[in-house]
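Example 3.2
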Amino acid sequence: MLPLATSAAYIERYSRGVIETTRHSFAHLLYYHLASTVALHEQGVVAPPRARRIIGALLDLLDRGADRVAFDPALENLQPNVEQAIVEAIGPDDAGDLSLGRARAEFGYVAEMLAVREDMLTALASVVGLGNCLARQAAALKDVLAPFYTVHMRAEPITLGYYFAAFAENLEQQTARLRSSYGRMNLSSAAVGHIVPSPVGMDRERISALLGYDRVVRNSLYGYFNCDVAIDALAAAANTAASVGRLALDLYLWAGSDLKLVAFDDAWCSGSFIMPQKRNPSFLKPVRRSAIKVAKLHGEALELMMHTAPMQLVDVMGIPSLAHQGLAELVYALDLMSAALATITVDRAKGAELAGSDFMQAAQLVDLVMREAGVGWRPAERIVGCFVRESTGMPDPRALESIASTFLERSITIADDAFRAAMNPAAIVASRGDSGPAPDAVAAMSAELAKVFCDARAFVDIERNRLALTWRRLVEAARAA
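Structure, written as tokens:
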């Protein structure tokens, strides 16, 4: 066999990078080796003395951790480095059974997929954290008036609570996506051999159970490139990141000097070197950048899979590393947004002022004309449109009556109290209770969403505890071999 490539260009620009981007999976690689050795020992394939020596060396490496292992980049990736460490510890004869019947690429791939499974739980916890923050803010700000914009033009009055509840419901959907993706991730491709199963006949079900998987792949060849589940995780992450990025865009507007509706603590803001009056919500920059990175990593993974022929095979095995990076970027964006959003303060008076400006009550006036004049939506809309265009100063119900009478060629009467109610943003908001911004409706939404996030958090805790128990039991089984 030829040795691995050792040219400086290959090592420095490729191999070293491979090791650095996969070292997070070092412990998981050792767990896979432990599970394999236990299963092979139980099958009688590896003799007890040799199995015990291999296990002892693996446990020693596990105790040392990746930070205390000197990785040789000339060996290209983690698996040959682990093999070399085991050879140095117990000699080549016993260490020869460490990777029995499998290619080195399979070891790194399985280890990274194990790591991504835990990455997904971390991401879920962060989604839940931001979801809870949004639900709390929705409840706290359920009666704080604000303008909503379409095409960046003021449209209709809402409340900030209603706005944040919308994003909380979005994160409910993102939580469901990540949980569903996590279920597809919980599939073992361990011990698939290399293209076809190993002639050793490894007990894949036993290894899968030792690694805490729910089930095994049916087909060994699929198990060798089932990176679709890692891309699925990245897709869920990219969808979530896009939502957080969109929230950041609106927060720029809410916090901007033109509106000054919301503000954040000084820890999340910065000034300008040449414009000392500025108070920039600087935390939104890294939120946006991380969101964009997640989308790029998802695209890269999808392109890599699309353009790697199945029989080229090995290139797609870098996809779990992209998933790890993408999930880490998502967690950063979510946690940053959660921490900053918890410090938000609002100018209630400014919100009420903005919500009552630029005839944002026009839709309510259309409804009023429809009821008072007994006409359809379009005629009423034309009447209100003329009223808005011709009004100067304080809106007057008599002017609305005059325009309507001219348009309809008959007189109508608009009651003063009905006109005032139609022009009152708080009254408008309070009247929209069916999935709308009415404070009671927002409070109910927030309470329901809080329950959803509580359930999701319980799922994360249960799974984390299950995996922690899995690793403890695996080590115990290894020590008992």
